[in-house]
Every structure is written in structure tokens, then in C-alpha cells.
Design a protein that fits this description.
single chain; mainly alpha; Tetracycline Repressor, domain 2; 2 domains; two-stranded antiparallel sheet
Length: 309
């Protein structure tokens, strides 16, 4: 079904299913689904397959709803940034009000279904995640402080906790470690992007770290957060809920991450920022390996170190 849109002026535009799907930020949503799946798979205990599917679907829809609301509230920023100018709202294919209605309905629906068919703790965490990303990060932090990514990163860190809670209904140390990994990963990942997109953020008036504190300071902070992240990334093995496959693969990725962050620290090309571009993609690979190794060990049947005691 097509919707008539007049965002760009008197000329009518047609919103397609693809435009509304783009509002969900599918690339971000895929990462959220993956980390949420890891929480479901790694958590101790049993969950019915239908409940697991429902939980994962709600996590996906909740993440997509957050993306749609973020695009709606940030449509003024997106319109002046080269990286985001082709999104559906700035291009006039979807009206801002339509995106808001779409996002809030998906938000309420995903939380309600999670509460009715999974459990209240996972529904509460999902609701908090959506609220934090949309209200705290998008409407407040993003436009007001260079620490927007640091504090706002909590929203992106919670999906494995939601998956874990869907199985156990409990708050545990292991679950908090998975959250901490993503939370500490977020600053070096996004600040690497901000280094080579700093002109974009400056033009849009977004106070990202390179714009506010300068590139040298941002490089130092990327390196500092990397040093904080890497031991936490190995903590699942130390705490006994990951095994040798995890330790070996994440250990190698940690060394690569540290090398890439060191290159950024000593970067001299402040225009093209090749080291920052490399770190951005290394960071994506790192997070994928962390959660893929956790899932693989469970599916293959490799016992975590805790089972050896």
C-alpha cells in the first residue's frame, strides 16, 4: 500500500515499503538482533523455541522502532549531513509525522508482546532501551554534549541483556559483562567514524568529540577506551561462561583492535583519516567475533571454562 507524502513541498511523493523498512535502520537492527541472539543462546536455562523467536522478534522490532523515531526527530540534522541526506525523510519520501506514528506504534507493540508472551523483566529492559535511545540520547544528549556517544551507548549495549533476561528472568553478573563490552566498544567505534566525518557533524551542529575537543584529544580518548575495553572483552572466559574458542578468537581480535587504535593515536593525516577508517571496520569485526564466538561455542558444544571446575 502506498502513502502520499508532501514533505518536500507541493510535489507528491510515494512512500514504499522499502522506505519504511529503511526507517528501521536495518544494518543497526541486524547488529542488535545478533547480540540479542547471543544473550538468548548463552544464558543458562531453557526457553521454548516459540518464546525465543518472540523475544528476538520483539528485540528486532524495538530496535527498528528506535531507528525510525531517531530518524524522525533528527530529520533536520540528517538533511544537512552527506552521510544521512538520502534517508527517506530528508528525501521527502516519508513525512516526519508518519515516521513518528510508525515508530511509536512499533515501540508500544514490541514491548507489549514481549511482556505478554515472554516475561516482564525483558519487556521492561526493552522499554527502557527504546526510551533511553530516543529520549535521553536522540532528544537530549546528541545535541547537547560531546559525551553523547558515551552515555547514549547504554541503549545499544542492552540487547544481550534483554535476550538473557528472556531466558532467565534474572539480573546476573555475566549479563552485565556482555552489556559492558558493547558499552565500552561504542566510543572508539563511533569516534573513529566521527574523525573522518567531522566536517559533516560540524556542519550539522552536532557536538561530536572531534568537533568539540579536537582530533588529537579524540584520538587519545579512543585509545584510552580501547585499553578499558580489551580486558572486559576477555572477561567472559575469566568468569567461566566462555571457553577456549572464545579466548583464542577474541584474544586475536583484541590484538588487532589495539594495533588499529594505536595507529589512530599516532595518525598524521587529519584530512583523510585512513587509520580511523580502518579502526571503524576493525571495531565492527571485533564485536562480531565476540558474540559469534559465544554463540558458536554453545552450538558446537564447547564447554565454557566454568564447566571444567
Amino acid at each position: 500500500m502506498a502513502l502520499v507524502d508532501v514533505y518536500a513541498g507541493p510535489q507528491q511523493r510515494i512512500a514504499t515499503v522499502g522506505d519504511f523498512f529503511a526507517l528501521l535502520k536495518p544494518r543497526v537492527m541486524s547488529l542488535v538482533i545478533f547480540t540479542g541472539l547471543a544473550g538468548l543462546v548463552v544464558a543458562p536455562g531453557q526457553i521454548h523455541l516459540l518464546s525465543a523467536f518472540t523475544a528476538l522478534l520483539c528485540i528486532a522490532v524495538g530496535a527498528g522502532a528506535s531507528g525510525a523515531l531517531n530518524m524522525a526527530y533528527d530529520s533536520d540534522i540528517d538533511a544537512v549531513m552527506a552521510r544521512t541526506a538520502t534517508r527517506p525523510i530528508p528525501m521527502g519520501r516519508v513525512a516526519r509525522d508518519e515516521a513518528l506514528t510508525f515508530g511509536w506504534w512499533l515501540s508500544v507493540g514490541s514491548v507489549t508482546i514481549m511482556g505478554l508472551f515472554v516475561n516482564l523483566l525483558s519487556a521492561g529492559l526493552l522499554a527502557f532501551t527504546i526510551f533511553f535511545y530516543v529520549v535521553v540520547y536522540t532528544l537530549w544528549l546528541k545535541r547537547s554534549t560531546a559525551q553523547n556517544i558515551v552515555i547514549g551507548g547504554l541503549a545499544g549495549a542492552l540487547p544481550p541483556a534483554i535476550g538473557w533476561a528472556a531466558v532467565t528472568g534474572e539480573v546476573t553478573l555475566a549479563r552485565r559483562v556482555l552489556v559492558a563490552i558493547i558499552f565500552l566498544w561504542t566510543p572508539p567505534h563511533f569516534w573513529a567514524l566521527a574523525l573522518f566525518r567531522s566536517d559533516d557533524y560540524a556542519r550539522a551542529g552536532v557536538p561530536m568529540m572531534p568537533v568539540v575537543a579536537g582530533k588529537p584529544s579524540t584520538r587519545r580518548q579512543i585509545f584510552a577506551y580501547t585499553l578499558l575495553l580489551l580486558p572486559i572483552g576477555l572477561a567472559p572466559a575469566a568468569l567461566g561462561f566462555a571457553g577456549p574458542l572464545y579466548l583464542a578468537s577474541v584474544g586475536l581480535m583484541s590484538a588487532w583492535f589495539l594495533f588499529a587504535a594505536t595507529k589512530v593515536l599516532f595518525e598524521r593525516d587529519s584530512v583523510k583519516e585512513p587509520a580511523a577508517k580502518k579502526l571503524f571496520f576493525v571495531s565492527i569485526a571485533y564485536l562480531f567475533v565476540v558474540f559469534a564466538a559465544l554463540i558458536a561455542e554453545r552450538l558446537i558444544g564447547i564447554a565454557p571454562f566454568g564447566a571444567w571446575l
